[in-house]
Amino acid sequence: MTIYETAPRFDAVGAGIGLSPSALKAMELMDPKFARLYDEIKVGNTSPERQQQQIEILSVEERFGSSWGWKGGSVGHVRFERSSARRRALLEAVKGLIPEGSVRFNKRVVQVVQHRRRRKVELVFADGEKAEYDMVVGCDGIKGMTRGVVLGKIWPEEVPAKYCNKYVYRGIAPIDEAKKIIDQNVRWWVGKGTGWAMYHISQGREANIVAFIQDHNSWEGEQVAREVTREEMEVEFASFDTRFKNLLLVSSVLQSAPPITMAADCDTYVKPIKWPLFHHPDTPTYVNGRVCLLGNSAHTSSPSQAAGAGQGLEGALILSKLLGLVTDSSQLDAALKVYDAIRRPRAQGVVQTSREAGLEYLLVHPEFGGNLQKITVDANKRLPSFGGMTWGEVSEKQKQCSGRL
Ligand SMILES: Cc1cc2nc3c(=O)[nH]c(=O)nc-3n(C[C@H](O)[C@H](O)[C@H](O)COP(=O)(O)OP(=O)(O)OC[C@H]3O[C@@H](n4cnc5c(N)ncnc54)[C@H](O)[C@@H]3O)c2cc1C
């Protein structure tokens, strides 16, 4: 097996990542060492009574909604364990598990050719090199070319990702500043067309910020992040509690003079950069011939449930277990069929529930509007389906794999 990566090295985009129990279970089943390494870098809710809480829902308004009697909505489950980590720390943990010599950097795939009669797939690289394999796993992200290879001929309209009509501002706050609005537990403040999620990372030394804005327009031009002025960003948070605005203000001071306590690679508070959110709400198949999709190339999700990468881990587990059962390359077609049958309904379901959650948490859901009580009740109902409390089902499917090849 060879991993081809176009970049000169592996790198992490964004600051923090939250992982659900299903993602943690997938890690453990792939390699117990992976789960142990994650345990060393993760941080959860530290209040004992909130260990099983995914988020606490509050209002972005002055005093977080307490002025009109809102005391906070708890979303959790007895079998949920919330945890998050710094992306860069997670990447370091994963890197140590990749067999030496199996990654080739600076290798951009520019063409994928299926030789169907010979049952081979040929990769053509930007530097002119070619390589042939029995199969190819397209784990090349939301805009990856393999999505076009798998879907392009029959479903060309599903190849490009669709705009979620939302963008986010992302950043990291040192814990002393973050403490002004969060305790040790994850919080999600909601407002009409806006939201602010915040949780601890770096073993509690910093807090990750993802601030959401509903966009009524389409995203024109390239699907990439766009810098705006600080004033433009601050206007978006005009209706927020003063403490959020202070956090943004401190940001402008610190941008030119980051405190030395912050990791050199981290974003300084909330940068005035709009990150548009795109997703793949419909992927009619994850497999075409001997090419299959894995991770964001298959099922990019909005981040409203913090479950996109977790789905990638579940996919990697199922695919690796299936490929582990293959003793002859003639069994690959059957293995990929089973992979599609197991993974697609689950992962596309998560994309859909994340879309729903995005509408709810920005108070624009047609059924729930601004009713925080109803939103909390619905979020509690939705949590077991994506959070992994149904993991027994997924494990069961994994066991069934052996019987289907
Ligand atoms: C704001 C935000 C917050 C999020 N928070 C969470 C969270 O809390 N929890 C969670 O589970 N998920 C979260 N997600 C989702 C998560 O970040 C993604 O699902 C995950 O990073 C996707 O990983 P991937 O490996 O599939 O794709 P990528 O990370 O995009 O990796 C694709 C790789 O393929 C390489 N590549 C692309 N094209 C080629 C080519 N032609 N040749 C060679 N190499 C190529 C790229 O260089 C890249 O390294 C969030 C997403 C966003 C936007």
From TrEMBL:
Domain FAD-binding span(s) in chain numbering: 285-353
Keyword Flavoprotein part of the UniProt annotation: yes
Keyword Repeat appears in the UniProt entry: no
Pfam families in the record: FAD_binding_3
GO biological process: secondary metabolite biosynthetic process
Entries under InterPro entries matching the protein: FAD-bd (IPR002938), FAD/NAD-bd_sf (IPR036188), FAD_monoxygenase (IPR051104)
GO molecular function annotation: FAD binding; oxidoreductase activity
Assigned keywords, A-Z: FAD, Flavoprotein, Oxidoreductase
Name of the protein in question: FAD-binding domain-containing protein
